[in-house]
Amino acid sequence: MGLLPQPHVISACPLQGTSAEMAARACGLIVYRRLQPAATSRPADGIEYLLLQTSYGTHHWTPPKGHVDPGEDDLQTAFRETQEEAGLQASQLTLVEGYKKELHYPVRGKPKTVVYWLAEVKDYNTEIKLSDEHQAFRWLKLEDACKFAEYEDMQATLKDVHQFLCSKE
Fold this sequence. Notes:
alpha+beta, 7 strands, globular
């Protein structure tokens, strides 16, 4: 996957075939917080991203996300999964307008689509409460977040988010 500039709203190509061939779909929030302004000289240096370490498989690090339940829309799923996996209620977050990203990749040979939105915690000191699905969490600046997020498309997404946030300042 190249690192060409991409629009901030990316739509999936429709998949052909039966529902058995359809991509698995998951949704989540890229959650960030800002350090107090006095703590840093440049606002971009004060942004930290929340990554959760899975308690299964390769113990990879990822933003909160999960599969869409019947009757839910994608954004409802993103908020529900963030509440289940990190203990963050929708009322503790501010959804950032204008950012949505779709990632497409194979999982065990089958296509998967993950849709991410961007959300800021309202209170820097908000407590994270992990579910059994995760064993650890970290608030990380961009460079470290990219090191922890081993997958190239997640690294590219974090960089894209950071650029988007910096362009808004």
